[in-house]
Amino acid sequence: MGEVNSTMGQAKVAKAMFEAKYYRGSVLEVTDWEPKSMKIPKLEQITLKQIKLGSFNGAIVFVVSTDCSSDVEAICKIYDDMLSPSTLRCSTGDGRNSLGQRLITGAYAFKEEKPVYERLRSKPEIIQGITPEYYGHGKIKTGSGDEWSIILIEHVCGKTLDQVDPAKLERDQRRVIMRKLIEADSDIMYYGRVVHKDLAPRNVIVETRTVHSGGNETEEIPEDPRVCLIDFVNSVFLEKAKNGRLWNPIFRWSWKWEEWAADESGAGGWLDRDDAENWMWEEWGKGKPEKGYRAVEKDDVIKVCGSL
């Protein structure tokens, strides 16, 4: 518990530092803009609308609006070295916080994440929507004269799965979300040759819609929501494509599903522990031609953690 409180304390300190430096309504100059989408062909400034606290893994995330030349609401990741291990004072002295999580500099995070978005954008085979649209990258200048790299991506309207209580959803709805999550994970690996390496509820967005009822507004998940993977700082590239036979998600998720299952008491979790494997075999065992998944037999599945 002490380690958790320590990390929470670091987050509060970092939040205060950022709110003093980047505040709602502030306008930042953008330089060296390199567009990757015609939605924002040029960019000279952004206006900060909302800070989105995350794991402080090399970048801070904002909702921003672009200047009048495009007028797009987007997510901006600012790779500010205020997030460096020395600034956040990790307790172990080896670039990790007290929970053993690796802390990296903004420059390193930008160098790792930008190429992933560029590669995924270049693969037309990848179904649109399973990652945010990539708008481009550049640099921002702060009032203090600092200059930091940024990327702009689509602002996906929804919640990360760590903000959703799966126990409040029907099993069929949870399965729809997990099917889309698992297939997205498989598609970026086999089409884009990208392995996420940090696939967790905080890095998956599920679409929500605003429902008006009795003068009140609530956010609800639709029956067939968009499911989107985010945060590719820890991702790695595969040197070559995997054998097409292994494309079927069962090979990778035959050992990963337990990370997303309910605990022994049945509380929490996105998959039901007692029937998750049966559900996966019903979903993908016979293959799925429209997705390029071949049929597999249970004897074919080799459960070697990290082999896929």
Automatic annotation (TrEMBL):
Class of this enzyme: transferase
Enzyme Commission number(s): 2.7.11.1
GO molecular function: ATP binding; protein serine/threonine kinase activity
Domain of life assignment: Eukaryota
Reactions catalysed, as given in the entry: L-threonyl-[protein] + ATP = O-phospho-L-threonyl-[protein] + ADP + H(+); L-seryl-[protein] + ATP = O-phospho-L-seryl-[protein] + ADP + H(+)
InterPro entries: Kinase-like_dom_sf (IPR011009), Prot_kinase_dom (IPR000719), Tyr_kinase_AS (IPR008266)
Chain ranges of the Protein kinase domain: 45-308
Primary role: Component of the EKC/KEOPS complex that is required for the formation of a threonylcarbamoyl group on adenosine at position 37 (t(6)A37) in tRNAs that read codons beginning with adenine. The complex is probably involved in the transfer of the threonylcarbamoyl moiety of threonylcarbamoyl-AMP (TC-AMP) to the N6 group of A37. BUD32 has ATPase activity in the context of the EKC/KEOPS complex and likely plays a supporting role to the catalytic subunit KAE1. The EKC/KEOPS complex also promotes both telomere uncapping and telomere elongation.
Quaternary structure and interacting proteins, as annotated: Component of the EKC/KEOPS complex composed of at least BUD32, CGI121, GON7, KAE1 and PCC1; the whole complex dimerizes.
Name used for this protein in its record: EKC/KEOPS complex subunit BUD32
